[in-house]
Amino acid sequence: MLRVGFNARVLRAPGIRGWTRYTISLLKELSSLGVRLFLYSDAPLHAGHLARLPAGTYEVRIAPPMRYPSWEQHWLPRQCSRDRIDIIHCPVNFGLPWSSRCPRVLTLHDAIDQVYDAGRRRWYQRLRPAELKTRLYGWMSRSSAHRIITVSEHAKSDLVGYLEIPPRKITVIYEAADARYHAPIPAPERERVRRIYQLNRPYIFYVGGWERRKNVPFLVRAFAMAALDGLDLVLAGGRQEERAELARLADSLHMGDRLRLLNDIEDADLPPLYAEAHCFVYPSAYEGFGLQLCEAMAVGCPVLAADSTSLPEVLGNGGQTFSLLDMQELVCWLRRVSRDASCRADLSRRARTRAAAFSWRASAEQTLSVYQQLRSSPW
Fold it and tell me: What 3-state class would DSSP assign to 208?
């Protein structure tokens, strides 16, 4: 049985975002393929995340208190040796030791820091100690990895072009929606979610971060410009401190109570929230993949996505793209989707068809193939 060690620090906090979903979903499927998992961290892992994994398929190893560099560079490789690990895998952009007795795999989801964020930081921000440490850790992990997994061809292009990683070192493996998004959603469950979040009118939906690259104000302005009678715009996710900025924008656009900001969403409520929406809109300016597209498509929610970075690759024919250079294009699509039931039905059909192209089982099988290639060849 293949013994794989994971840097599982991403599972310490209770929140669930892209990297956490990726890690949990991959671990679940790898365990079903007969992989013995060892989860390493410098602090306890959240019980809610561990509850999603099949019992008896993993072991958790928590280090005693120590500084992070000592944990990553000394404790982690020593513990891998003690556990006779065949492969060590870090499922986020940094966290591999410089050396170990087993091959090292890194999932590098994107090059956002280099492509998008770096040019938007002032010179003194780039020289802050925390920023320098993050860049150092990232460089060390990329350099020490024997194989890098990334999540789209677009992300691979950026890794090659901006980080100068040899293409032969990179394997593209798509993410996917959890299986529960493909399951039918009963009417009582839809009604329950509408009642909990007080969604009394039809709505356009967005879920994800509210940071700059997610481009949420673009969606808010387009929605206001579309003047959709009887529809709300529901934004889920984000952080509490970001609410005020979006609320001020809505006030300046005279949106009244038609903008709904939902911060605390139970993960189990997401499928019905997608399913009840007129459409899901993803206006992000930069994504390595865009997992929400897979989730919305699996539910059969009509999808409108920006024609930027990886989003057209993931969406395929499963929805409609729009330009971030012309807000009127999104305005027109919002009006069409809100008023034309046949358009919504067509987009819903296309979404479900495209969603069938993604599965965590296939992702785990391809990841296992990477492990087996490394194990059977000089590294």
Answer: strand
- Please tell me whether residues 28 and 162 are part of one structural domain: yes
Split into its structural domains, the chain has a count of 2
Residue 123 above 90 pLDDT? Answer: no
Instruction: Tell me: do 109 and 237 sit in the same domain.
Output: no
**Are residues 215 and 296 located together in one domain of the fold?**
yes
d(CA 206, CA 88): 35
Domain that includes residue 65, residue range: 3-176+360-376
Neighbour-count burial of 344, counting CB atoms closer than 10 A to its CB (0-12 exposed, 13-18 middle, 19+ buried): middle
Q: What is the distance between the alpha carbons of residues 279 and 345, in angstroms, rounded to a whole number?
A: 11
Does residue 45 sit in the same domain as residue 150? yes
- pLDDT, one tens digit per residue, over 124-151 is 666 677 777 878 888 999 999 999 999 9
Of the candidates 60, 61, 145, 35, the one whose C-alpha atom is nearest the C-alpha of residue 95 is: 145
Tell me whether residue 64 is exposed, middle or buried, using C-beta atoms within 10 angstroms of its C-beta: 0 to 12, 13 to 18, 19 or more: exposed
Q: What share of the chain is helix, strand, coil (3-state, %, to 5)?
A: 50, 15, 35
Q: Is 183's pLDDT higher than 90?
A: yes
Question: Is there a single domain that holds both residue 161 and residue 230?
Answer: no
| Res 165: pLDDT | 97
323 and 223 in a single domain? The answer is yes
Q: What is residue 202's three-state secondary structure?
A: coil
CA distance 20 to 205: 22
Confidence of residue 75 (pLDDT cuts 50, 70, 90): very high
At 239, which CATH number?
3.40.50.2000
What is the DSSP pairing of strand 87-90 with strand 104-107?
parallel
Mean pLDDT of 247-273: 92
Does residue 256 come out as left (phi exceeding 0), alpha (psi in the -120 to 50 range) or beta? left
* Cα–Cα distance for residue pair 170/174, rounded to 1 Å: 13
368 shares its domain with 306: no
Q: Is the pLDDT of residue 360 over 70?
A: yes
pLDDT in the model for residue 16: 75
| Residue-averaged pLDDT of the chain | 94
Same domain? 121 vs 235: no
Note the helical H segments in 177-229: 187-196, 216-226
Per-residue pLDDT, 117: 64
Helix (H, G, I), strand (E, B) or coil at 38: strand
